[in-house]
């Protein structure tokens, strides 16, 4: 459906408004005929005309402060989190971006029109913070907005794209999350393409994250504009929000490929869901080849949270070089089967129980796109247990839980 520009009063939205209304009803059921065959088909439709900046060839991994801290971001927090990413082993697991969200800047530009860090929060400025993060072997991300103001009212980049991109490059920023508030009714494709051009003109590699939250169906146009694009409203730290976002994002698998990804928003692991639900979110996001951006208080994260975020077997599914997003191959009564082909010929399978009571979920090797062998090895990516089967792939799955296999 074509996105119709609404009056300016309705376009000026903030995160608090986003939370009151979902973008669209979740897809209740999927047409699954032929889905198994599609799993072994050629490159996805999103591969054509992709942004050629050579970045995000696998989904970006890192951390963003917003979910846990909102506007309470600071240089000290960013540095402490960078330290924890390294000391906890998350860096060696693949987490590399330390991303600053809204509220990092002063409320006005300087006399030359430049953005200014809030030096109370960032006494060394963004460049000093970036230097610290880089010294840890990590990369720094920044936030801005494709409107006149950010969602929290700080100066936006609309009309200042080239100036701001040059400033970010001078600070040695590695990642830009670009939001959609106060957009003055200018089309999203125009605004986001203008910033893409400005970033490219700097000559500095910066992952470009389009945070347009799906209003104008960016999956249809953004592959040659950004490296990732938000597909849904902002996630909240509860199972219902996570489930709704999953339902939307899982339908868009054809648009994901190396260098450009569907983004179902940051992870809420460690922010209030149960441990079972945290395992589920991480499994589903990995299966959907989603960016893995932790959104919790990593500095004080529990051992359970760190073990979930650090599961290298699940991360390997997300980071697989084939770059295919897993597809829903069966969904009935809240019992779902997803399959994701991997570069070495294996298939990652998620059995997901959306309901509150435990249930058995089953599929077959042929249904997930495997055939021709007398037996298959199933490796449980959470327990490490290994077994074989001639065809059936089945497990008792707890309520709100998953069982995730790598099938060889």
Provide a short characterization of the protein structure.
With 408 residues, the chain is α/β, with parallel strands linked by helices. It folds into two domains: 49-318, Aldolase class I (TIM Barrel, Alpha-Beta Barrel); 326-407, Sandwich (Immunoglobulin-like).
Secondary-structure-based class equals: alpha/beta
Mind summarizing the main beta sheet?
8 strands, parallel
CATH architecture of the largest domain: Alpha-Beta Barrel
Helix share bin: 25-40%
CATH class of the largest domain: Alpha Beta
Whole-number tally of structural domains: 2
What is the strand arrangement across the widest sheet?
A: 7-6-5-4-3-2-1-8
For CATH, the homologous superfamily of the largest domain is named as Aldolase class I
Features:
408 residues; alpha/beta; TIM Barrel; Immunoglobulin-like; 2 domains; eight-stranded parallel beta sheet; six-stranded antiparallel beta sheet; 13 helices; 26% helix; globular; disordered N terminus
What would you note in describing this structure?
The radius of gyration is 21 Å and the shape is globular. The chain has two domains: 49-318, Aldolase class I (TIM Barrel); 326-407, Golgi alpha-mannosidase II (Immunoglobulin-like), CATH 2.60.40. The chain has helices spanning 8-11, 15-18, 35-39, 66-69, 75-87, 90-93, 125-135, 161-170, 188-202, 239-249, 275-287, 303-309, 312-318, and strands spanning 61-64, 97-99, 139-145, 175-179, 207-210, 228-230, 261-263, 292-294, 327-332, 335-341, 347-353, 359-364, 376-380, 386-389, 392-397, 402-407. Helices cover 26% and strands 19% of the residues. The chain has an eight-stranded parallel sheet. A six-stranded antiparallel sheet has the order 9-10-11-16-13-14. It has a two-stranded antiparallel ribbon with strand order 12-15. α10 (239-249) links the parallel β6 and β7 (261-263). The chain is an alpha/beta fold and 408 residues long.
